[in-house]
Design brief:
By secondary structure, the chain is of the alpha/beta class. Helices cover 49% and strands 18% of the residues.
Length: 188
Amino acid sequence: MSFSVGIEMFTKELEILKETLPTVRRVVVLSNPNNPAHVLWIKEAGRAAGLLGVTLQILEARGPHAFDKAFAAMGRERAGAVLVLPDSVFALHCGRLQGLAAKGRLPAMYGAREYTEAGGLMSYGPDVHNNFRRAATYVDKILKGAKPADLPVEQPTKFELVINSRTAKALGLSIPPSVLLRADQVIR
């Protein structure tokens, strides 16, 4: 994922979280300090949070050994929701992160549908299947003789909102119709 797509994406994720949870005041951002992109994304998320009247709390987890401690801190700090930044370490443990969010009864927003399919509340991010289709056109061009360096760089243009209604029900949440109407998929 490119830096600029990530920056725009987090603003949108916070907007969707705020629309879904209008009374939320404190959102925890789960970050991996080993991921250099997170610094930029957190900075942009901070700007968006100010506009939405939300306070962000940044909690770091370099790996699965730190997940329990981070979620325990979320509980102590009375977080209203959690935004999990995209990260390869987090993706490898998406089920565990979702489980910790569920255990703490924390509504969570993720950047990939896999988290929502694993039981997370909602995700907003690039449509990975569409990206794979677009990558196939690059492979085709290269196989037909195009030089990779001559091909333009593309960023994702199709994003998807996925909501898990079972998780919303388990958390006692009612997803507003305006959010449900924008969803690309509602897992029932």
